[in-house]
Structures are given as C-alpha cells and as structure tokens.
Design goal:
Blueprint (H helix, E strand, L loop, with lengths): L8 H6 L5 H28 L5 E6 L10 E6 L5 E5 L2 E5 L4 E3 L2 H4 L7 E6 L5 E5 L4 E5 L2 E5 L10 E6 L5 E5 L2 E6 L2 E4 L11 E6 L5 E5 L2 E4 L5 E4 L10 E6 L5 E5 L2 E6 L2 E5 L5 E7 L5 E6 L3 E5 L2 E4 L11 E6 L5 E5 L2 E7 L2 E4 L11 E4 L5 E4 L3 E5 L2 E5 L9 E6 L5 E5 L4 E5 L2 E5 L10 E6 L5 E5 L2 E6 L2 E5 L10 E6 L5 E5 L2 E6 L2 E3 L2 H5 L5 E6 L5 E5 L4 E5 L2 E5 L12 E4 L5 E4 L4 E4 L1 H10 L6 E4 L19 E2 L4 E6 L2 E6 L11 E9 L2 E3 L5 E3 L5 E9 L7 E8 L6 E3 L3 E6 L4 E11 L2 E14 L7 H64 L7 H26 L5 E2 H16 L2 E6 L3 E4 L1 H22 L3 E9 L2 E8 L18 H12 ...
Parallel strand pairs: 59-65, 67-69
Antiparallel strand pairs: 1-28, 2-3, 3-4, 4-5, 6-7, 7-8, 8-9, 10-11, 11-12, 12-13, 14-15, 15-16, 16-17, 18-19, 19-20, 20-21, 22-23, 23-24, 24-25, 26-27, 27-28, 29-56, 30-31, 31-32, 32-33, 34-35, 35-36, 36-37, 38-39, 39-40, 40-41, 42-43, 43-44, 44-45, 46-47, 47-48, 48-49, 50-51, 51-52, 52-53, ...
Amino acid sequence: MQDAEGCDVRRIAFSCRCPRSLRSIFLPSLLVAFFLVGSGWCQSGAEERSFDYTRSLWRTVDGLPEATVQALAETPGGTLWIGTTGGLASFGGAQIHTFSAGILQPLGVHSIFCLTVARDGTLWAGTEGGGLLHLRGDDVTVFSNAEGLTDGFVRSVFQDTRGTLWVGTDNGLFRMQAERLQRVDDRGDVPRIAVHSISEDREGNLWVGGSQLIAIDPHGNAKVFTLPGDYSKNRVKRILQTSDGTVWVGTVGGLQRMVNGRFEPLSPIHATVRSLLQTSDGTLWIGTIGGGLWTLRGGQLSQLRKAGLLPSDTVLTMLQDDNGQIWIGTQAGLVRLSSTPVGLVTLPNGGDPDFETISGDDQGNVWVAAHGLFLIKNGLAGPVTFPELGQLSIRNIYRARDGALWLGTDGSGAFRLDGGSVRHLSAPGELTNNFIRGFLQAHDGAVWIATDEGVSRVAGNDVRKFTEASGLAYFSTRCLLEDRSGGVWIGTDRGVSFWKDGVFQHNAATAALAREKVWSILQDRQKVLWFATRDDGLFRYSDGQVRQYTMAQGLPSNGIYEILQDRRGVFWITGPDTIASIGEAEMDHGAESGERTLSVTAYTMPFGADGAQLYGGRQPAGWLAHDNTLWFPTSRGAAYIKTSRIAKQGTGPRAVVSQLSEDGRSVPLSPGLKVSAGVTRLSLSFSAVLLRAQTGIHFRYRLEPLEHNWNTTRAEDTATYTNLAAGHYRFRVQAVDGAAPQEISEVEFDFTKAPYFYQTWWFYTLVLLLLTAAIWGIYRLRVRQMRNRFHAVLAERSRLARELHDTVIQGCTGISALLEAIASSEERQPHGELLEYARHQARATIDEARQAVWDMRHDEKEVDLLEAMRSLAEQTTREHGSAVTLHCATESLRLGTSAAHELLMTVREAVYNAVQHSGTERIEMSAERHRDDVTIRIADFGCGFDSGAAPGAEDGHFGVLGMRERMKRLGGRLELKSSPGAGTIITLRIRHARRLGANAPGSEMQLTGDKNGTEL
C-alpha cells in the first residue's frame, strides 16, 4: 500500500520489530494504528516534510525605502544593495541604510529597477525614467541623453566576461565605450528591441530578451529566436543558462527552455516568470508574478506553498550571496532564506505538550513521547498505541540490552514489556514515585528508575529504593548515568549523587554541584564527566578538578537541558531555545586556558518551527542515532540534525565603523578626521558586515590611548565618549563570530580632537615665556627692592655720618680748638670768655645732635633757610673771628625741614672748611634765584688748594664727600673751584626748587621774594 509520495505503510509498520513473543500481542495494535492513518499519514508527512531553510523578512518598518524590491546585488565586501520602487538601500546584515535621497531627487525618480556590480566593485543602477547611475563610494555619475542614452527607463545592466558593460532600456540596447553609451540594436542584423534581460552563456554569446529574443555571438553576429505560443505571452522577462548548459527563458506566459536548439514551454507554470536563479546545489529557483516561488531540483518541479514563507506571491528578483543564502525580492518585502541542517518532523495532531522526550533503538526507530506516543520512520511520524495497557500517558521509552522495552508513565509507574510478559512496577512497592523521569541499565544488568521523588534500582526481583533518607542528594531526580568505572551518577534538582560499591560517595564533583539543578550528565570519549545544569551552565570534572563554563566563556545560554557527544567527538548542547555544537578539541583547549572563549556554533530552526522551545528535565531529552543523526524534542515536533549536512560557514563578519556623531550631529567618515575643540560628546557606531544571521556575533572595542581594556557587547552598538581631551585617538573594533572566535575581524578609525587655543603648543609657549618673564620681573623687582633697601640703609648711614661729621665732630672740633687756645695761653688767670664760648659750643653741639635725632623721627612743615644761614654766619663770625657775610635779594627762603637741613649742613660744611683750612678772614655767602632754580655760593679768600687733588675719604677727610652726597640727595649739584693762593668757591645749584616741598626732600619748595611776598 503506497500513497502519492510512494510511502510503503506496510513496510513501515512491520519494521517496528517488537519482540517476537510480544509481536502477537502488540503487532495488531500497531498495524491498526498505522493503517488508520494510511495514506493520509504519508501525505500529511509529505506536505509537512521539513523545509530546511530559515526565513527572515524585512519591510518598510525595518528600513526599506519601499516594500517592493525589484533588484539585488552583492558587492565584494559583502554588502547587499537593494533597489526598490522608493529608492536604493544597502544592508550589511544588521541594519538597512537608505542611500541618499538627495542624489536621486534631481532625477525626478526614485524607482530602481536593476542593479549590477562591476568587476572593479562599483555599482551600476538602472532607474525607471532617470537613466543609468554609476556609484563609486559617495561619488555618483548619471548617464542620460547627454551621454548617449536615448531612453531613461533602464531595465537591465550587465557586464560580460570581456568587461563590456551592456545597458538595456525600453527603447534599445546600448554598449558602454569611453564613458559614452553607444546604441547597438536597430542596425545591421540586430533588430530594434525593448530590453528586459541581458545574459551571457558559456560560449560567450550575449542573450538579449524583451520584445524579442536575440543571441549575439562574440563576433557581433545576431540570431533572432522565435518562441512558441502567443506573441503577447512571449515577451521575455529573464534569461539564465544553468550549469548543465540549458538556456532558460522566463516570459509573460511562463517558463521555456532550449532543447536541441528550440524552445519548449515548461508546464505547469503559467504565470509571468520575472526572475530565475540557480543556487550552488543545482536547484533552479523560479520567481513568478502572482504564482509564487517554484523550484526545479533533480527534474522535480515543486511550488513552495509553505504558509507565510513569502509576504507576496509576486517574486521580482532573487540572489544567492557568498554565504549561500537566498535573497528574494517581492512586492511586499525582502526575504532571506538561510539553509539550516536542522530538520523537523511534526507530530500528528501537534500542539505544545507540557513534556516531551525522544529516544531510539538499534533498528533506527525514533520514539517520541508527548501528548501521545509516536514512532518516526523514514522522516514521518505516526501514532503508536498499546490497547492492552489501557490509556497511559507515556513519558519516556527505554530499550534495554536484552531487547525489553521499558515504558515510563505520567502517574502510572513503569512497565517492562518482554516477549509475551508485562511487568508493572509502581509505588510504594517497587518505586519511590509513579511519575517516571528516566531509565538506566547498568553494566550489571540492574535497571535504575528515576522518579519525581527518588530512585529505584531493579535487579530481577531485587528492588531497592533510594531517597534523601538513604543518602540521595535530593528527592527530585532528573537524570542518570553510569560511568566507565561502574559508578552511577544521579542528577537532582539540588546536587548530584554518586553511587559506587554499594554506597553513596562524595568527591569534588558532588561538593561543587551541591546546590545545582543537574539535568543531564555525559562521560565523553576522554572519560571526562560533564554536568549540564538548569541555571549555571556546564561543569567539567576530570582528575578531581571541577571547572565551570558559562556564557562568559561563550556558551549561548546558562540553562543547559541536554549534552551529547556525536561519533566525531563534537559536543551538542540544548537550552530553552538553543541547539549548539562545540568541537571536542575546543572544549579541551578551553578547559586548559580557562579564559579562552569557546567556539560555539548555534543552529536555527527551519521556517515553520520559528520560536520552537526545547524540552528538558525528563530523560532522554536528546538522542544520538546510529547514523550520527541527533534528535531533540521541541514544542513544534521532533527536531533532527544530520551531521553530514552541516556545511562550513561562509565568510566571517567584517567589522565596520558605520557612523560618527558630534554632539548628536552625524558627520562623514573620512581618514584623518579632525574633531573641533567644542565637541563635548563623540559617538562612534559600529557593526558587522555579515549577510547571514548574526547570532553569536559579539564585538570588542576600545579607544586608544584613553582605554587599555576591551569593552564587550553582543550586538551592534554605539560607543560614546564625553569631554575628550585634545589629541590623536585610534578607535578599534573587533567583530568575533562565536562559531570561530579565532578568526577576528578588526577595523581601526583614526581621528584627532582639536585643542582649544589655550591648549595649543604656541599658547603654552607664550604662557611659559610670560611666566618666565614674570618670574624674571619678580626677581628683578625683589633685587631692586633689596638694593633700594640697601641703598636706603647705606644712605641713612651716610646721612648719619654726615650729621656726625657736620654737627658732633665739627662741634667737638670747635670745642677742642677753644680748649687748646686756653691751654696754650700764657696767662694764668681764668679765661672766662673762652670757657663761655666752649660751653656754648658744647651746648650747641648737643642741640644739633638732638636736632639730628629729632629730624629722624619728625618732619616740620617749613624752615627759613636764609634765616638759618644768617645764624650760621653770625655764630661762625663770633666763634672763629672770620667775617662771614650773606648776600641775598630775598628776605626768606622757606622749605621743608629735611631739605633745609641738608642744604644748611652743606653750607655749614663749606663755611667750616673755609674757616679751618683756608686761613681766610672773610667768607662770603650768596643766594640767587632764577625762576625755580636756586644757586648758593660760598667763597673764601684763603690759601686755596688744587681742586684736582682735593683730599677725600681715603685721606680721612669726609667734608667734600658729605657735601656731594647731600646735594645728590636733594637732586642738586656741587661745583668746587679752587687753586693754590686763589681761595675756594663752592657753588650749590638746585634746579626746580619748587619740587622740594615742605615735608621731605624732593617735595615742593617755596621761595619768598621781596617785601611784598612775591612767590618765586
């Protein structure tokens, strides 16, 4: 009995191979089950046979300019270009980027009808009414009437093997020559043609189709082909030569192929064939308008009727990328079909059961326990019932080594079927609980049965039960494993127990997993034990050491339901929604390094099983068949992976820096970019160019020299930096595929943050110079202050010396002279008058000394210098006998005390020098004024001296030196004229006398004139 697909139901039924004695009991039931479904089972299986592609869909909400996708092209760098009725877009695998609308706007159109990538990697785009576009990066060249293109509706662009670019329009065929388009049709033997498709065969013939079908050989000779059928249905939309040399032509009326030089239509396609594609596996994909998608494989023509596979039955373009994925442009969106090694067998009357287990036997049978019991044979699932056992909810099936079949139920205990006998084990007699979670037959033949509340060991009629009271880690058991040493491991919801030599033993594994939910245990080919936990990843136990693997080491999930190892050594793990594989060497190397990221390959469910959840917690949650096919229970049915169908992944991800923003404003990326000093927030967006699903791709990035450690993210992201200091930066991004972490794609982007003016080198130099100048100025000021202080101290010392010389010393000299006169007198009677002079002189000297001290602490307002000079003249005349006279045209000369004192002391010194050294009997003083200038002269008529050899400080004479110092202090000048025998004239000149005031030297001095008080 066979159905339409040739399924032999009788063969499937009998191949179940129940035990011989059991066959008489259960075979009728099995046959009834199989024959009840009959051909309907096989037909249903044929319709639901696994579709080995995953599907992804993009529409306008996902970034497309418009949903109608008319053209596709892939650049050598792995970027997909998408031509839509609303514009051009590019896609790197993460996000669709719309091409600048500002470039298309001047053309007045946005619809892109065709695309092709030239050998140099540049993109050519044909528009509907806007001519031909040539894109070189951001540079776009438009070809229109001025460049020889007579029609702006470009339907096809093609570059042949010789590098010639051909352009087909609604009105003519063109060839690119020297950046101009030259029309080829409507001349010679090439008829006038409206072009929709251009292709090239293996012989180098150019096929041009549209209003006609023409083949042009390499020499330029053309041949026109006549297609069978109505002319209105023979307009050509697509031409393709497949790998077997057959030329296929898609027309308005369907699909035709060349056979023996003639074209024949291919039934039953009667819709317009808009696109043709032959994939790398030899399958011919046929896209129609309104008729959906068809495939031709091995001579079998099939229409893909998977519900919801395509958003529209109008297929406009198709492309297979470098990763083997199929891209389909439809009227309602862009579809990507990615091949997956994961297949799915749906269960009859399928739904989402609350549990599901899967197991098999040596005969190739695969058993699935869910809402019922099912047997998978030849890729089809059929229900199996055991009427003699009644209505049982079977949780799991286990085939023992002796051929007996153990059935675990949901609340009815366990059944052993062997020959014609049935043994029922239940609680509380043989089992700790009637809800079975797993079976294990140990090397000694004993069968261990895990339940919801403990474990039972059945060895013939000897039954032993284990609970927490017996030493079990926890009552809720999940999995069982016997290792090669004969020890039995029992995974529970709170730890793992190890039974050996009749007792529960403790070791590093039981200690490390004391609080873990252990749902699966595996001993690999290297005798290493692996423990899969519900929440904390994998634990590896070897040589007394336990190491943990989590998502931090590259696992796709920390929740592990099942772990298996296939016959190649590859590890397989499942999680809530994950099936993944890890190489054996990778696991061992990762275990040794500890920090190394594992190379994990994640597998995607085929279309129709999207979002399928896997089951775990009941065993077996995975099964490795003898043909190395892996089976896993899911909410959509039984998933399987044929390891022989696993193909090596294509090119890995290529890291790119996609965008740079300055304070939220996007700026073009350019080498050596300079960021202005005022930018406070800099954002760099990065992604990976990878057209296949980017599951498992993660990124590492850092900004040097700001960051020394890598930042990690698992999706395309944006790195934002605020208040960057001025300087040169390098932004590095690495894209890592979890399936091949050793293959790292890295991109670098250099930029410079400009400094503020106060951060520039010249500003620092200027500041340094100013600072140096300031320090030097402060130093000079300090030195000047110190010098001024020193000069002030020195001046004060000099003044005191002058005061002592002109007052005390002079007075003492006078007293000394009087006393010597008394002493040398021959008269013995008292010299009262001389003594009176001496006493008066001593009193005057004391007064002058006191006055000098007073002058140091006080400053009277004004002193009449002429009056003081008159007193000086009188006193000198009285004391020394020399006639001292004063001549002045004014009655008074008033100035400040200090200034008057300096002048008076100078005059006095000059008078005393004349009295003591010149031998003169007459001394004349005079004071003259001329405007603000004052001149004082002191003249004697004594012996005189050589003014060029006047005694000085080195001779112990300080008189002239003191007078000069006093005049310098007042800002005046002392002139001394003398010669031997001609007397001496000392002239004191003071300019701007008004500036010598009443309070201090250098302040204003007033000269009072005649009797009327005229101010000089």
